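name: query_chain
kind: protein
chains: 1
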Amino acid sequence: MKFLLTNDDGYLADGIAALKAAVGSRGECTVVAPNQAYSGCGHQVTDKSLIRVESGGPGIHIIHGTPADCSRLGLLQFAPDVDWVLSGINEGANLAGDIFMSGTAAAAREATLSGKKAIAFSQYLRKPEYMQDWERTTRWTQKVLDVLFDLPLEAGQFWNVNFPALHENEPDPEIEFCPHDTSQVDLQFEWNDEGAIYRGQFRNRGQRPKCDVEVCFSGKISVTKLALDCSVN
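structure:
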């Protein structure tokens, strides 16, 4: 198989290195990733200015643009014949409403718009209580890929995967397929004379039973199938 790897944390991020290690010998990898972090940029694209492109070495293309730009340019120019576009592994979970702000999810969504199969990967972080182990996340990613590569994925759909934060002595988590939560984040702001500063906590958010937030927070790998079709019948 052939893979296009991208992310929203930048081409030097630990997460994309872990993702590349997880793909391993499964096939040929082309990395098309941003020159810097674009976390929270959503599906922003660059259409009114030059997008600079640099070489990061064999098979690595550094894009001075957003994750969605990376998917577009990767599929149009650098790796048009890939079988899968894999985005991540994001440093932080992308659950529920995060999907609409996530550059990680946007890269996968853009690939889906282009007719490619895609998966967005994110790692829930809870520092300093839980130290992040990217080698362990690599192992979990391999486990998920073994499952998802054998499952059907219809046109207009992509997978969103979130890994839990676990202590180092805990066993590897189970994979649970679950619906996408629509609960709101923790909306707390600190006000002063100049305006408002967001002070909400990621952990203190709404969560519906057996949906992606609760599944990931309970210590399991949440796997959700998302669709491009937003129409209301």
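note: Helices lie at 14-23, 67-78, 103-113, 134-148, 212-217.
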